[in-house]
């Protein structure tokens, strides 16, 4: 991908074999692959499929974030100067926030994870706020009433991206209230869809790249950042995107 | 009304003459009347109608809250020991919060109004929090993403009642996000419908009465509090309620 | 918790081990714990986890309300003078009403449970109404069309809190009609989200505390009621709240 | 109309001249016409149009129900033995209930109107219940939370038809909660759409006709009731119906 | 039940033992019981429970309609003169239509079942229309776009009751389009909620009773029809209704 | 436009001068222009603007369909062999159906308009069905419950396109039920959005062109039909399309 | 079916035996049958049922599209000159697109399948666009944001039919955004419901037939195309349609 | 504001005098003010109010974007190196895009405006794509089906922010489809609410500042960028934010 975002395969709704085939193609054409929303069956199929064509590649499956990261042997990951803070309101937000973290890290950002600072106990947030202020971009995952992104955006100067999380039951449940809250925020922030950790993390990574590109002497300024494409491949997609 | 809540006439959707007739009946049977969502036409009609039957009654019309309060000559208002804090996030919340304030005061509560402490600037809220903690009941009016009731409820020990306010446009606009946020709150609070200042203020008043009744020596403990019915009338409704 | 509400862990969506860890921490820091929406796996894990660190603690699991209540050995429960009536329309409302009852009792309220007085047979309700009028606060759980909270609020002087219950199919099913009905009520009441028995019971408990505080000689009047924190601990949260 | 329902023209969204033309055709082909949701402009145009072709016809415009009833000179209205009770919760329900009343009366039913018996004051309803029990069919109009149809249906043996009325603001406003409540009713009743007084009144009239037909010696039993078509015309529609 | 509707237990969401207990109580107090939405576990429990207390009672379980009908030994079913037509658009509508049929028959109506006359093949409907015109009341079950009730109501003189059926996928699926279509019908009909066969059948039965009562010499005309309460019991509910 | 669809300017939401400018550009580049949803102010501005640059052009404004059709002097309209039937349920459907007719005629189709054949009176439809069967494509406009497109599609062999019309009030009103009904149809048809007469007429025109192209000797078969572009211009858009 | 569409049985929600019976009847009366949304149990039952009555019939079950196509021995399939392009955005769209393909082929159209040309990589689409332009009708299946139908319709002269696919999670998920996008398209296209591959393919087939009929010398021009009914049977439905 | 975003007053829903007072306070405390959604009455009041206290301040009112920009005499606007591209699909998107442009420019970004490149004519977009690729951040405004942000994000490496615009009628109208499309995008982008030009422009400005800060030698790297606060004031809010 020309944006430095790893070719991602959304495993949910695909069969393990299909998923493995797409991941393998991504690995072969771009030097790496990222599988999201993977079950252990998906992960096993990817591990086996990759093992067949690239026995020396690394395959990292994380059960909480449900991601599989595949790196070709000798793949040199990008490393950006900018830090992305990934902030959660509570433990239920961890898997989604983790998905964001994985993709932002793959793009090359440094990550600072700040957990359990939900607004029902504002002191915990205030205790961590200086740390959050250090980051160049802030991703905030929260479910239920989803007030945390607004409170954080009122306290930091960096761009904030909200991830509404699909918690809560009844009216506004399954993340609907949190999404509506992000869209109605009286501060400045942008949002992704409910549980779309991948998108938030990737957007944060794109901003980190833009900042990084600007800060690098001799950079051409167009934020294209070819240098972060670890394997030097052009990232041709492996599948129609829609 | 056996609950000490003034007989209220919702003017919106009624003709001025109808409204005046209902208010006059309330005045005559209960010693007072409260008209809500009144236009100036409604207010004028009430003033005239009351003037005809009770020339010495007081008629107070407030344009911001759109309420008209009518008291019979010699009406002795109830006075409870408990204070209701009425808190707003911003200026757009003032009319709705004011409606709550009017009815809570009519029930006899002392009122402490705290303005403009929305969560996008958490410091302003923290500056006022000790004052809010003094109240026996807290009513919080907020629109847009409506995060303030949750943050306040995390900071006080008293019962909190949220009033979602019909601000905001697009998805979750017109108070929908604020209502969903109140229903999804990860703290403990109850809510009323969007813009339902009357209901929130009345419920706060009922709680204040219950507290007051308990604190009064010799009280019968059933929170019935007949003594607060200023005019000593039984508050028979003037209109079918539904 | 400074409000006298037991630290509550919402088990649904958490793994048994996670739930047990949070409950144990709550027990150790506040002298008790409340787990809601617990499966038997959750309950077993909590029992085992608590057994390890506090073998003399009591662990009460109720299958109908899906709650687990944990009390440290020697924990002295608060006991308030005020009674909370918990009223249901039919048998399907029992589990949700029971969740409300458990938390209100933990806060210290006396409970009066009134069952099966739904509006389709108004005589049954009228038979019980004097009993309901004895309570200081009334919680009413009803699903389907959810008319009971309105009818009850028209008959009592105490504050009424509605719990819409997720019964019914088709349009307005799963509690949506009952919630909308509570929000549209032409009487005075506040509501919680569909099935949010915990929140309704906790708010009822907060009101009961406020009443109790007011009725106790020498009370400072700010409803803070530290004395009801059974274990005397400050109730520091065990988890980010959102 | 073979069902004895007067040919009805829904004026809303039609120009006065169009409305008048349709009403005139109905008058000429069926001996009468019913215009619903008519503004005064519509009414004036109908009066004028009818005056041109049938100067002796009666034209009755009612501003509250927004109906215009036109009868040919010498038109002999049907008169059924059965009574339809038309019950309202409050004054805001009167226009919609009145629309139902007009059409049921045109079909020939006797009407008993019972006003302002909303559920927030259940005693008023109980005071009138014997009267309602006299009717063969009961139409109940209520807005806001719309609990009245359910309570009435629990108290009478006759078929009950609910009309949700478009009152209330916020979530469930504009009659949505009342409609959902009718659909979720835990008693037996059927419903029409929000504000559809015409449909409810017409269905009540059809039932009254069926009852009347059954009770008339020599009736053929198929409820066709041609005899009630006052003008003896076959009621050919004047307009495509959809 | 004073309306002649059998005491009905909605099995869905209740445990088999609970269901059996409620059915048994109904049998003992009213001479019969009707269980709806029963699984085979529910049916088996009812059979066993009834067998214990009333070994001679009949227990009829129908798998398609998911109903269980229990009659005390010697129970004499009511028999009304009026016929209810139960019409379906296609085979998917059969279970819901069947539920309506069972309850209407229990109330005493004669039933005429007309199958598979959906509007996509209007000729089939026209072939059966004279038969449908014989009925005193017409119940029409249809899913998907739900056009059949409107077309039928345009062709018959009797009252029509629509049952939207929960078929269809995507926008308007699960019966939502069919319900909206019934509410928007440009003919006269009333509706029940999606899949609410019980309610439609019971309302049709109430109308049939009213007609029957009117047609019986010496009837008191108030449609109360006590004579149809087979067991002569007053039908006290066995469960809170809401 | 390469599809033979006239360059259309949606006037609603544009100022008269803007609309006139866009129409003038379309006229100059393609030999004609079509303005939809035009107020009389829009029409006047277009007439004036066109008068300035092309005094001999024809400008036809139709108040019912709210369209303005502009043809350059000497513009030779396309004429296809295929007929499009435009069918309405009732008079309220005429404006939307008319918009469809205008654009289909501009594309060159012959039009057969069939009015007022709504399903509540199925005989009227059956009387016209042979005429409808003559058409190559059938457009059916209906509001309220929107059953007509399904019934028509069950009776003809040609492709049917539904236009849901924004009539009806309450649940499913403003065309929502009619749209859902089209999407749920149990026959084969495609739909456009509520009131989107332009789109339906244009699609019908495209099909008519395809049929026409196929029937013309020597046609290249790719349905491109350049010959119908009256003015021989390539139809470059005058505005970004989205 | 008089339209040349094979009699189709929607297996979902039917039992295997029911499905087999309906398919067998269709085979016997029309020479073929099409079963959609078939599980392998449904397919097995159809195979067995057909085997019993018509051992020489062909039975083709496809697991991806979940269709079963049954042809009588000697059945001669229709063959139209017109081609239908079936275009997908990504692999998740394949099953739904395939359902459309099967039915269009049964109607006799030639099919050109174009895969994986989603708008996130517009170059892939532009690479295939000339191929798509060859088709007489274009069916476009896309989920998530569903932008592909609009982009394609801007690039081709033939009629375009959108199939929104039920992919995506959160707000607008399950195909809702794709459907809304098709309805809001700023180009000309018609749509079917989410996942309604059958309807889109059948409509495309009807258009192909109309084109074919027009291009055939001596055709009667009414698009009835009896000749394409392979088996020469009149296609009487085997099931009530709604 | 510590983020360099001008203190903004949302005029809609405020009285002109209120708006002027808030703008004046912002001017006095921060050296500038931005009023959004201003009518000409609002603009006139601001002009007058500012004239009273700061006669030398500049007051720029733009009717299309409905913004008023006020700068103190001698106010030195920030100037960042990074460019924000503001892209629209069609003319209806101009006002909302313009609002975004104004705020991004106030934060100091250079602006490149690209108009009318909607997806229905993909060539126009491809013609401009290199220009868009020059920008550091891309804001894309589109209504109706809102496909443009996705197509653009597939073609550029910079972060993309979508603004759904409230165009379109019927299902998905008023921007709902465009918002759902942005949330479902199969590329990487973040979104703001419908018509929220201010938020999108401000977020783009924050990213531009972060990039600028990184590219400036000696910058502290925390993106705080105090230097861009033209007037050197701390930007204390003038109004409660929520
Ligand atoms: N977890 C995810 N949530 C949302 N979008 C994703 C996710 N993972 C991948 N994607 C996006 O969806 C595309 C893959 O879709 P697919 O081709 O169906 O596998 C990727 O190129 C990403 O832009
Ligand atoms: N059953 C419940 N329903 C709603 N809220 C609950 C429930 N149980 C606990 N809570 C609230 O949610 C918080 C715990 O959420 P968590 O930290 O996710 O376990 C508690 O502090 C309560 O305020
Ligand atoms: N107020 C009303 N509400 C709903 N339906 C009505 C109303 N008035 C008339 N109708 C029905 O709508 C049909 C008239 O519609 P139209 O032909 O558009 O005037 C009548 O035949 C009635 O069945
Ligand atoms: N009445 C209408 N309804 C829906 N779409 C329309 C209508 N009139 C024009 N259009 C479409 O919208 C485009 C014009 O949009 P605009 O550029 O905003 O004027 C045209 O090219 C048509 O494809
Ligand atoms: Mg892909
Ligand atoms: Mg009243
Ligand atoms: Mg917690
Ligand atoms: Mg009509
Ligand atoms: Mg019951
Ligand atoms: Mg355009
Ligand atoms: Mg069929
Ligand atoms: Mg502000």
Reading off the top of the CATH hierarchy, the class of the largest domain in chain A is best stated as Alpha Beta
**Count of the separate structural domains of chain A:** 2
Gross geometry of chain A: globular
- Beta-strand level of the residues of chain A, as a percent range? 15-25%
Indicate the low-confidence ranges of chain A by residue numbers. Answer: 217-242
- The largest beta-sheet of chain A arranges its strands as 6-5-7-8-9
Bound heterogens, unique: adenosine monophosphate, magnesium ion
Secondary-structure element order of chain A, N to C: EHEHEEEHEHEHEHEH
Averaged pLDDT of chain A: 90
**Helical run tally of chain A:** 7
Helix share, percent of chain A: 25-40%
Number of strands of chain A: 9
Looking at the structure, the CATH topology of the largest domain in chain A is Rossmann fold
Major beta sheet summary of chain A: 5 strands, parallel
Largest interface: B-C, 48 and 49 residues
Q: First CA to last CA of chain A: what distance?
A: 15 Å
Oligomer: homooctamer
Helix/strand structural class of chain A: alpha/beta
């Amino acid at each position: 991908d020309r944006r430095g975002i790893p070719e991602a395969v959304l495993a949910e709704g695909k069969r393990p074999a299909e998923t493995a085939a797409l991941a393998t193609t991504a690995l072969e054409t771009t030097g790496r692959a990222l599988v999201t929303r993977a079950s252990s069956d998906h992960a096993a199929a990817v591990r086996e499929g990759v093992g067949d064509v690239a026995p020396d590649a690394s395959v990292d499956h994380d059960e909480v974030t449900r991601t599989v990261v595949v790196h070709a042997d000798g793949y040199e990951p990008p490393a950006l100067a900018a830090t992305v803070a990934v902030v959660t309101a509570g433990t239920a937000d961890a898997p989604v926030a983790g998905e964001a973290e994985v993709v932002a890290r793959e793009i090359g950002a440094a990550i600072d994870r700040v957990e359990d600072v939900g607004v029902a106990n504002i002191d915990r947030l205030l205790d961590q706020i200086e740390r959050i202020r250090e980051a160049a971009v802030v991703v905030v995952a929260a479910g239920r009433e989803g007030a945390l992104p607004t409170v954080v955006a009122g306290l930091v100067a960096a761009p904030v991206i909200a991830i509404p999380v699909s918690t809560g039951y009844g009216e506004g449940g399954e993340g609907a209230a949190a999404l509506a809250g992000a869209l109605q925020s009286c501060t400045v922030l942008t949002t992704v869809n409910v549980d779309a950790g991948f998108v938030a993390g990737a957007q944060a990574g794109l901003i980190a790249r833009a900042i990084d590109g600007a800060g690098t002497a001799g950079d051409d300024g167009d934020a294209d950042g070819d240098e972060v494409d670890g394997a030097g491949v052009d990232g041709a997609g492996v599948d129609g995107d829609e």
